[in-house]
Amino acid sequence: MNTKALAGVERLLIDGNNLLHRMSGGVDPGALRLLLARLRGALPATVAAILMLDGHPASGTDRRQRVTRNLEIHHAGSLTADDALLNLVRDQAPHTRATTTIVTDDRALTERARHLGARTQRLVWLEQLLTAGGGGRTTIGSGSRPGLPPEPPGADDEREPWKPGRGATRKRGNPRRGSH
Predict the structure, then answer these.
(1) I want to staple 119 with a disulfide (CB 3.0 to 4.6 A). Which of 55, 65, 69, 101 is the partner?
(2) 69 phi and psi angles, rounded to 5 deg
């Protein structure tokens, strides 16, 4: 994994369902196993990562599962995954939150995490870090999307909302009908 991209990051909190849907189109056990293998191989030992999943774990399974020394799966249980991730940030001392990065495409979660003092990154950032060491694009599941260039932090704040006429087509009526 690109250690420059992870400079200053001690804790990586990942919106797991969001990432799995983006990379594979769903949250099936096979896609989860492949994602965990990619994360295991890519994370440096200095970064602790938590993959937060929605809902409850399978019957007989703990809510928190250690995959490796620095990678865990957490299930949000009756909370939303967003709230569970934010609770992990709140549980940290305020002066250490700047070393925590939440990875998500959820704008509301991004804003709330920044308000608490955590850094945020979009899912494409993590996708690129996961594929950078593999010599090319490796898909997880059948619904993978091609990689996109990384966006600078806060780029989505400056994004202008869609407006008609900005490259959009406009209906002009029936072209076969003469004007009266």
Answers:
(1) 101
(2) -60, -35
